Automatic annotation (TrEMBL):
Keywords: Oxidoreductase. It comes from Ensifer adhaerens (Sinorhizobium morelense). One of its GO terms (cellular component) is cytosol. InterPro entries: Aldolase_TIM (IPR013785), OxRdtase_FMN_N (IPR001155), Oye-like (IPR045247). The keyword Oxidoreductase applies. GO terms for molecular function: FMN binding; oxidoreductase activity, acting on the CH-CH group of donors, NAD or NADP as acceptor. Its cofactor is FMN. This is 1,2-oxophytodienoate reductase. Belongs to the NADH:flavin oxidoreductase/NADH oxidase family. PANTHER family: NADH OXIDOREDUCTASE-RELATED, NADPH DEHYDROGENASE 2-RELATED.
Amino acid sequence: MSKLFTPVRLGRYELSNRVIMAPMTRSRANDSDGVINDIVPTYYSQRAGAGLIISEGVYPSANGKGYVSTPGIETDAQVEAWKRVTDAVHARGSRIFMQIMHCGRISHPSMQPGNALPVAPSAIQPPGQTWTATGQQDFVTPHELTVAEIHEVISRYRTATRRAIEAGFDGVELHGASGYLPEQFLASGSNKRKDEYGGSTANRAQFILEVLAAIVEEAGGDRVGLKISPEMNFNGIVDESPQATYWELVDKLNVFGLAHLHVALFGAPIDYHALLKPRFKGTYLMGGGLDQTSAEVALDAGRADATVFGAAFLVNPDLPVRFAKDAPLNSPDKATFYGGDAKGYIDYPELEATQAA
């Protein structure tokens, strides 16, 4: 039997298989209040054949919102809506972690409370644009966080973790990739601070480590994961010595007893899996453009403990079944990836329906 379909330990949980659903922004929340809409529980329950589902990125506080129609975990209404998702996933026997995503400077004043500037480690305008309620808008020069404000952001991560567990999530994953706030602190190109959160690699890693410490205090390390994407270079992220940066960061993670480290590679010039997996003592999740064959090769070679699939899971709600039966996969409708209604969200057919047709 393929190793994809064997159990694996992830923190305090025994997962039924090693086919993990990646966190994917779908923008199906009410933009005014960050509450997920009524079809979101169906979307996640359809995909509960995964050994673990990692939710779309969810902002911990209103100033962490970076895109139109993305969800939060700050208010009672948001928590109650997410309970319907976790109940639906658990009813089908799977596990689900919430990915907590603070976008930092990758935002726009129109999405911030009181039209404030987005926040960041340094007042450096990133290149590019973000989607707002009125269309694409250029990123702006963000507000540089004071030390007191950094401590407040960390506190919001802590509260978000507490709220996620209250909503029934089995754990949380800190989004430390894609050029969002944790990676903005980590990378030398976006962090020009002169205090304890800037300068050396150790100082630049301090924000992520303090956030993880707060999250772990709330949930326990065996219910916490971290996602990183070395040299993805998305959203204007540049680092002068990325191999040394990630080497040092991962070395410092083991003190937390994390459930998993999720490493997604997109065009990195070196094999970070070979560099980082031996340094991490928890369950190592490999992501980034995998298909069934490449995932099985990685598992058989011991390069990963479990494998993460994004778009393939988006368009194939029963992806593990299709893998097991070597069945063809659905084709994606990229025009419906972000925003909209049920079309391209909960209407992708499962294999049995396709065969019946």
